[in-house]
Automatic annotation (TrEMBL):
This is histidine kinase. GO terms for molecular function: ATP binding; phosphorelay sensor kinase activity. SUPFAM superfamilies: ATPase domain of HSP90 chaperone/DNA topoisomerase II/histidine kinase, Homodimeric domain of signal transducing histidine kinase. Residues 1008-1220 form the Histidine kinase domain. Its EC number is 2.7.13.3. It is an enzyme of class 2 (transferase). Its main location: membrane.
């Protein structure tokens, strides 16, 4: 409670002085980091100055001396740069004389100027990068190396009272605005620590409190109390939105995962799953402590069938819950959890997969209990009735699934297969040892969970793909974009025309067209227009173009004449929708925006918006799309065809509809509902009543993908299971020493791991070799494509158009389209001339400068080509640079060719995904197959050993021993031959040994008889001698003495008679006969003889059904009588005898009888003599009873032992093997 109170205090009542101190500390840390960076940059600039004083500019030498983005100007002209991702103004160098912070369209930078002669050095230290949009590849924000996790706003002007960051000399750089008075990360962490401690202490309290009941053997009450406390506490955390209310951690951020009130984040989902594991463990704990299986054994046949059906149905329900759990994760999380789409194991993906494993652990607890119940029920009877029950349940659930949705069919199939395996294992349980059964059961549950997860992901993928295709088709068939038209007219046009900065830029003598375009595209075009490619044209008040653009209209009037026709008009003024006959069902908007430039003077800004095409092997549209407009599937993976009246009118994408699509499918209803699959492709048809039919096609997502996800989950869960097992072994090493598996289990385990490790090693080595080959082939293809582009651009036809930018741009665009690559052309000084993908440079992802390392390699070191790993935001890609020489003349260099392969990482990922999934599939299938094969192999190897062990178990010197028949010359055959030879020797020595034993036995018997007879004879002799003396002395009380001595003699004679009778019975006792008998009936018969409520309290507990064993019934009854009589006689006179008689059947097909008393116990010094013949602690005992009982029980294949505690009592145990049917 103290931890919770402290957390609440820090969240709601933290003193303002603490906040201020925390803000100042944050500001000081930021200042120290900035000053350290400036110091390093100053040293770097000083080294660079020494090189520049020689008036030599060598990129190769300067690059080795610069680590920060550095730009060197000479007489106002850029002559050197060390970075092509930081974007300065190339034409207007900074006019800074001291360290300053500047802001431009691409972010905020600290710029440190340094002058050496005619050279001006400017070193940039990025503080904030602004891409203008956010997606998987681009993320604007502060530099974490400087600001850490601080969420602040940088203020460059009018800092007021805000904390300021200055240089070491006290020069102002920027101010830090923390926003509202919220606790910073330091207090956040403290709150999180306190809250975590509070949770730990509460859980510890709950466990301790419930343990009180558990120690008193009130198991149900203790477990229910524990669950109520934990569930109530979990509900409290959800209701108060903790810990996200106080600490905005990613783990509890709804943006990463949000399903419902019960699971608003990944962290909450983790807590829920952990609670589910606790519930599952609690259920198993009660299942074990309450001895549910013992209760189930007593069920009648009809009740057994009912319980069996309920158990099977319960597992189907658990499987449906697991399916929904998987589907919820896939549906509510933006993470790519499909291994066929991404192999990157990010930390939150690992968290999700680990939660899946924990849910599997919970399932294993429940499934183990259900399977144990079914296993016990099947011991009572055999036949086909369990399969009939399963078939009935499966049929009913299948009918329900057809009503609710076919997506539940995989759940039914998986559950049915699971129960078939369990039923077969239960009916052949003697073939599998208990430890290995548990080992296989865990793998079975892992396989069931993995298959359920893969089926759930398949269902989710199909539903998402179906919805995406339908939306894509409707967008395609829609004639106009109503929302886009409204936003252009009511929002974009108004804001652009009223923007003062745009007006001033268009008025001035120097029109900064690049600034205006960037401002419009980044600030005024909403994210909705990310699906459009935007081109912006500027015209003055006379209608003349203000910049060189790729347009066929040199003036505004010509542009109007071409597009502003009656056919292209929309309901809004100056907004035109242009239809291209060559590309039907595409949209191209033209919006004319008038910008006031003065009195009665208006400039014009023209927005050209065209819907993005499906570009194979191009990542640029995805790279420049905002996060909220990114599609769940890449647009380049699909193709579409448009049919009108059954005739193909237009198609786009890689699929050839004219050749590969069967037009007869257009008449099939299934094509328009769930789609149709044909030759590895999935087609979905979308049509309207009067419009055309659109067929959207993607590659088939089928069995291979499902197997890949199954394999990944199976291997991940197996790895988690191994880690848990290793941790358990490390924490419980004494359990490992006690673990003694049988020979069959050892064979199976060794074979499994003996196959697993080499298979894993081969898979890793193969994957590594093939990955290297993939990379080499990919780079080789890039170089070949680059050489082809270089050859085209080096031809005279290209060099002739170099002065004409428009013609050059068209030339580069055509080559890029043919080669399916993005091509950029740089001049001799490394500045961009034209590019086929201007959006990359206009959006600020790359500057209009060539990679300085490429410039150095080609221009200075005469490299023929160079390939670099480059970055645009978070995207890594390969970029190839080649020299542009006329007719490939090595002496002349007129420019550079840059070919960025933005999809290089994705292409390699696709190759790796294919490789890794194939390897995993092979590995998983082989591993499962080998598990099955090793099971049968171990059985084949151990069957002869079991047979030999069974024969050895019944080998004796008294009975008849049968020889073994085994065909084979292996080691087992040698062992069998030696066994048979031993039997021959045994038979030869049996007669001699029997004679010796008989002689020894009779000698021992004679000695014992002599001893027993001698004991009463001695007092008899003494009494007679005493009487003789009395008669001789004529003692007056002779008659009295005669009576007394006579009574003594009679007593001793009776003792002699009893001794003679006991030994006579022992010598004439027949050999025990092994016959089928009901052990419970014999025990009940013996207990009835000794039941006397007045003198003895007897508690009898045994199952209702017969417990059949092979033994001598008469011997068993005498043994039970002897043990019961001994138990009653062992109780002191001051206690009332309490005898507990128990009969049960354990899991090893063994009947166990226990007879416990509350007597004095057996002293330690005589415990080893209890089963020795003729030993007895009673005056009138012969010592024969327990010896005879031990001999008879051991002949029946059982054993007898006892556990005693002096002063508390003794318990005798008898175990006998159950009779086999």
């Amino acid at each position: 409670m103290l931890c919770f109170a402290a957390t609440a205090f820090l969240h709601y009542r933290v003193p303002a002085s603490w906040l201020q101190a925390d803000k100042e500390q944050t500001q000081q840390q930021i200042a120290q980091r900035v000053q350290a960076l400036l110091l390093d940059a100053q040293e770097e600039a000083t080294q660079l100055s020494g090189q520049l004083q020689k008036d030599q500019i060598s990129f190769s030498e300067l690059l080795s001396k610069t680590h920060y983005p550095t730009f060197v100007y000479k007489n106002g002209r850029l002559v050197y740069w060390s970075d092509h991702t930081v974007i300065p103004d190339l034409d207007l160098p900074p006019t800074l004389r001291s360290i300053s912070t500047i802001r431009n369209s691409y972010g905020i930078f600290v710029v440190m100027p340094h002058r050496v002669g005619d050279y001006h050095i400017f070193t940039y230290i990025p503080l904030h990068i602004d891409y203008g949009l956010t997606n998987d590849y681009l993320s604007s924000g502060l530099q974490k190396s400087i600001f850490g996790k601080a969420e602040v706003r940088l203020v460059l002007d009018n800092p007021g009272q805000l904390p300021q960051v200055k240089t070491a000399k006290g020069e102002f750089l920027f101010a830090v605005d923390h926003g509202s008075d919220r606790i910073d990360a330091g207090f956040d962490n403290l709150q999180l620590i306190l809250l975590t401690l509070g949770i730990i202490f509460f859980v510890w309290f709950s466990i301790s409190f419930s343990r009180i009941f558990l120690e008193r053997q009130r198991y149900t009450e203790g477990i229910v109390l524990l669950l109520l406390l934990l569930v109530g506490f979990r509900f409290t955390l959800l209701f108060l939105n903790l810990p996200f209310l106080i600490v905005e951690t990613e783990l509890f951020d709804p943006r990463l995962y949000a399903a419902s009130f019960w699971s608003p984040s990944v962290g909450d989902l983790a807590l829920n799953v952990l609670l589910l594991v606790v519930v599952a463990w609690a259920a198993y704990y009660l299942f074990h402590k309450n001895e549910v299986l013992s209760t189930v054994k007593s069920y009648s046949p009809q009740k057994s069938k009912l319980v069996l059906g309920i158990a099977m149905l319960a597992f189907f329900v658990l499987l449906a819950i697991l399916f929904r759990f998987y589907y919820g994760i896939y549906h509510n999380s933006p993470l790519a959890l499909d291994i066929n789409q991404s192999i990157a194991l990010e930390r939150y993906k690992l968290v999700m997969y680990s939660l899946m494993f924990l849910h599997t652990v919970a399932l294993s607890f429940f499934a183990f209990m259900l399977a144990s119940v079914v296993n016990v029920l099947l011991r009572k009877s055999s036949g086909w009735w369990p399969y009939k029950v399963l078939l009935g349940i499966a049929v009913v659930l299948t009918l329900l699934a057809l009503v609710w949705g076919v997506r539940w069919i995989p759940v039914l199939l998986i559950g049915t297969v699971f129960w078939i395996i369990i039923l077969l294992a239960a009916q052949h349980r003697q073939a599998i040892s208990l430890p290995y059964r548990t080992y296989l059961f865990f793998f079975l549950i892992i396989a069931v969970s993995s298959l359920t997860g893969a089926a759930s992901l398949y269902t989710h993928f199909q539903s998402e793909l179906l919805a995406y295709k339908q939306k894509f088709a409707f967008d395609l068939m829609q004639g106009n974009d109503v929302l886009a038209e409204y936003l252009l007219e009511e929002d974009v046009a108004v804001r652009v025309s009223e923007d003062v900065l745009i007006q001033s830029k268009m008025k001035g003598p120097y029109v900064d067209a690049f600034f205006i375009k960037r401002k419009i595209s980044r600030q005024f075009l909403p994210d909705y227009f990310d699906k459009y490619e935007a081109n912006i044209l500027l015209f003055d008040s006379q209608g003349r173009t203000l910049e060189s653009a790729d347009t066929t209209a040199a003036t505004l009037d010509e542009l109007r004449q071409k597009y502003a026709t009656a056919r292209n008009k929309t309901e809004y003024e100056n907004l035109y929708l242009v239809n291209d006959p060559a590309r039907p069902h595409t949209r191209f908007y033209l919006k004319l925006i008038e910008v006031p430039l003065g009195t009665q003077l208006y400039g014009t800004i023209v927005l050209q918006l065209s819907l993005k095409e499906l570009l194979p092997n191009s990542l640029v549209p995805e790279l420049l799309a905002g996060q909220q407009h990114q599609q769940p599937f890449r647009a380049d993976i699909l193709s579409y065809g448009i049919y009108e009246e059954g005739r193909l009118t237009y198609s786009e994408g890689e699929f050839d509809y004219a050749t590969n699509f069967d037009r007869n499918q257009l008449d099939q209803n299934e094509l328009y509902r769930q789609g149709a699959t044909e030759e590895g492709f999935h087609h979905l048809g979308v049509s309207t009543d009067s419009g055309p039919t659109v067929i959207i096609t993607t590659s088939k997502y089928g069995a291979r993908e499902v197997l890949s996800n199954f394999s990944f989950l199976f291997l991940y869960f197996t790895a988690c299971l191994i880690v848990v097992a290793l941790l358990y072994i490390l924490l419980n090493r004494e359990r490992l020493r006690d673990f003694q598996p049988n020979f069959s289990t050892k064979i199976q385990l060794f074979l499994n791991f003996g196959i697993l490790l080499p298979l894993m090693l081969v898979s890793i080595v193969t994957a590594s070799l093939v990955t290297g080959s993939y990379k080499k082939d990919l780079l080789s293809s890039y170089e070949k494509k680059g050489e082809a582009i270089q050859d085209h651009l080096s031809r005279p036809t290209t060099l002739e158009v170099l002065p004409d930018r428009n013609r050059l741009l068209r030339r580069v665009a055509s080559i890029a389209a043919l080669s399916e690559a993005d091509v950029s052309l740089y001049d001799r000084n490394g500045r961009l001339l034209v590019t086929s993908q201007p959006l990359i440079f206009e959006s600020g992802l790359l500057s209009k400068l060539i990679n300085p390392y490429a410039y150095a390699a080609i221009s200075e070191r005469q490299a023929l080509r160079v390939l670099f790993d480059e970055h645009a935001g978070n995207l890594s890609f390969n970029a190839l640079y080649l020299p542009l020489r006329p007719d490939n003349d090595p002496e002349k260099l007129i420019g550079f060719i840059g070919i960025p392969f933005f999809d290089s990482e994705r292409q390699l990922d696709l190759k790796l995904i294919e490789l890794i999934t194939t390897t995993m599939n092979i590995f998983t299938v082989m591993f499962i197959v080998f598990i099955i094969l090793t099971f049968f192999a171990s059985r084949a190897l151990t069957v002869p050993l079991r047979m030999l062990a069974d024969k050895l178990k019944h080998t004796s010197l008294t009975g008849k021993n049968e020889m073994l028949a085994y065909e084979g010359a292996d080691e087992i055959g040698m062992l069998v031959n030696e066994y048979n030879r031993m039997l021959l020797t045994l038979e030869q020595n049996k007669v001699e040994l029997a004679m010796r034993e008989k002689e020894a036995a009779w000698r021992e018997m004679a000695r014992q008889v002599a001893h027993e007879i001698k004991n009463p004879l001695t007092p008899m002799k003494l009494s007679l001698q005493y009487l003789q003396k009395a008669i001789a002395e004529k003692n007056p009380n002779t008659e009295q003495m005669i009576n007394k001595i006579s009574h003594t003699l009679i007593t001793q004679i009776n003792i002699l008679s009893d001794i003679a009778t006991s030994f006579s019975n022992f010598t004439s006792m027949p050999e025990p006969k092994a016959e089928l008998m009901d052990l419970g009936a014999a025990l009940h018969k013996a207990a009835d003889l000794h039941t006397n409520p007045a003198s003895v309290k007897t508690k009898l507990r045994m199952p209702e059904e017969p417990v059949m064993v092979m033994a001598d019934e008469a011997l068993m009854v005498r043994t039970f009588n002897n043990l019961l009589l001994n138990a009653i006689q062992a109780v002191p006179a001051d206690r009332k005898p309490m005898i507990k008689i128990d009969l049960k059947v354990d899991g090893n097909n063994t009947a166990l009888v226990s007879i416990a008393d509350n007597g004095s116990g057996i002293p330690a010094e005589i415990q080893h003599k209890v089963f020795i013949p003729n030993f007895s602690t009673k005056y009138t005992g012969s010592g024969i009873g327990l010896a005879v009982a031990k001999k008879g029980i051991e002949n029946a294949g059982g054993r007898i032992w006892f556990v005693t505690e002096e002063g508390e009592g003794t318990t005798f145990y008898i175990s006998l093997p159950l009779a086999t049917a």
